[in-house]
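Case study B.
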Amino acid sequence: EVQLVESGGGLVQPGGSLKLSCAASGFTLSSYTMHWVRQAPGKGLEWVSTVFSNATFKYYADSVKGRFTLSRDDTKDLLFLQMDSLRAEDTAVYYCARGSTYLHPWGQGTLVTVSS
Amino acid sequence: DIQMTQSPSTLSASVGDRVTITCRASQSISSWLAWYQQKPGKAPKLLIYKASTLESGVPSRFSGSGSGTEFTLTITSLQPDDLATYYCQQYDGFPWTFGQGTKVEIK
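Model:
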């Protein structure tokens, strides 16, 4: 069964850092384009970042560019999102998702709260 | 960036009703559009991709149509399990963008 499981969320102060992980099972992570999408409390979905299967190309939303870094550990089928200089507006549930076009499947999400 | 606009933002319908949600793109995206269903407290789930292709396992009462800038998601006979928020998403180019969502309520 194809499955994605996020972890690493929590409470962090403004200006702090957090690293999210997404564990893939049932498929080889390196063969797929992978994404992070977030959803602020009570709000809609916002695409955050994408890494293509060849890992050469990465894209970031303007709202996180220069602060967030997406990486992969292909030996462990893990996707990461390093989040630095966090702001209150980064508070959201962060989902990882698979797909070169549409997003399928999605993980269950991990909550990041940025607050003092 | 390509803006995606959904309407209505909320709709209330009875079981058995036909429901239509519209998604408009600010520029042509060909058929590079997906629809997702998000139930309360859950992750989004893919319903339709390439504007009209039903994902495996999704009930046939769901259908999608459109191309270019105007798209629709139709539920032919609304069921209680369809209580959810529905999002469209374009994947014609980065940044990928979502509509603001349509919340479907059951009368």
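Chain B touches chain A through 23 residues (CB under 8 Å). The remaining cases will be described in the next quarterly update.
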